[in-house]
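ok here's the first one, seq then struct tokens
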Amino acid sequence: MLPSQRALFDIPSDVCYLNAASYTPLPLATLEAGRAAVGRKGRPWLIDNDFAARQYDRTRKAAARLINADAADVALIPSISYGVATVAKLIPVPPGLRVIVLKDDHSSPVLEWTTRARDGAFTVDTVQSPSDHDWTSAVLAAIARPGAAPVAVVSISSVHWADGAVLDMAAIAGAAHAGGAIFLVDATQGAGVVDLDVRTLDPDFVVFPTYKWLLGPYGRAFIYVAKRYQGGIPLEQTSYGRKAVRAEQNVYFTDTDYVSDARRFDMGERDHFISMEMAAIGMEMMADWGTQAVAARLRALTGRLAEKLHDAAAAGRISFPQVQFRTPHILSLGFHGGIPDGLVQKLAAQKIYVAPRLGRLRVSPHVYNEDADIDRFATALLAGIR
């Protein structure tokens, strides 16, 4: 069992932080790298010419390692919405077809399609929230619905951000591809914790950021682009997306053909010497620990919490998804009549931090949490709902 990694973070002993699904604290090593990077930007004459290229290479490799991808198949982007917009530019949806999304999924894999569908050319088919949190069965039923229009795109999260339910990506990928649909995975709440092997799954696109489970900063995200789509036109036009547009050359526009891999989709102004290394450090930590070890530790923590809330659940005071439908690292709690008034604030006053999400209380520990954090939260929660 992977032990608690609390010593690697600046978390005071009296703080019970159970909100990794919103954003995680940065490791001490990342904080130090950030401080050094700010100083580096203050003295740019000390930055050697190859420094930026090394940073991009390191970070791209770290992201690719998390999903077992080739580094050349991963682009550096600023956000999930940027990645989804990139996909939408690459694959115009034919008229009369469907794009499948999840009810109350996060905005990024949804709003791009609902906005583009307003002209009536295609429809957005929203899979409704299943009462038992079995999103996989609901999505598969939507794809195979008799009499429905063919599916052009399945644009969904691998883990639902609000109820913590995990979706069977392999089953959904098989159904999507069998019908000729594009499969776009938002792995924001899963990358680094839930297995996602692109060589096995063969998704068309995968997007994920660093600021949540990957222990990194804001403004750093990635898109995996399957090789079959790497010939498309990127969202932005950049010099480094072309084969030979370089300031140090005698002829600036020497070769304006695109580079042949996913690097053509890199964001503009990727030269951010402060957060690039910071993003790499957290991802490398997660990859070194390994998905299975991280998941096992977090499963033990959320399982411990579920056990402590068993009696309250049996009495109907609290509900949460059955273990077969929930992800290892999130336990989303429902309450009859909604979250009790003031509960989140009362917990925060005790330095216990969780997040209210769509009428539920989302508890999301990470590798810095300990059994004592779970016990402390459970005690305070039960006292707060009497």
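and now the second one, same deal
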Amino acid sequence: MEDRMRIKILTALIVFLSAAAAQNERSGEPDIQRRLEMIERNQAEAVKAELPTLMTNYQNHPGVLYLQAVLTTNGIEAAKLYQSIVDNFPRSEWADDALYKLYQYYYSIGLYKTGDQKLQQLKQEYPFSTYAVAEQVSEPVSPPREEAPADIKPTGTIEKFPTGFTVQVGAFSTLQNAEELKAKFEKENYSSNIFTIVNNGRKLHKVWVGEFQTYEDAKRFTAEIRRKFSLESIVVSR
């Protein structure tokens, strides 16, 4: 009975959100940012329900393509969508977001050279992007060699990042979502910090976990994060 009630409530919520979105967007642009914030708040299913209508009403819209890519669970297919935004809509507000997603994707699967190329393209073509400014502060690190993943324990409580490496586990436009992820790691006794960058009125809140003396230690820690939290992460230097 409780399951049926939950399904009814969820269905009603989806119908309400779809109707509200249709009313608000009938004569304007789709509110992509609002839906991205919904995804960050674990409301991805509601956004998925809206996606077919958005794709019909806004064909070849870069923001809708970006939303589709974010909701795509297959990494290869998502990368294709992000690349199509970069190639076909280079002047849209979502092009730099798509490039940053490509950079994160290639790093997460170990294609560091390709990831570096995407990051350099981001800096060259969108120098005032929030992502470009942020990565000038915390550069991703290409490893000297590949190693087989192994689990390690993170070091003690972090007061600051004076030197060495840390691991970025997320980047959010909403501070509350970054704080929730930070709290999730701290609940499991992992020390973490939030680094915020602001550019052109757009904020990006990065969640960093752990402090390591070497790249190899930090890289091994990403395997632990993947195993325990089902999150992809990247090593950054400080």
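notes on #2: The longest helix spans residues 2-25. Confidence is low (pLDDT under 50) at residues 144-162.
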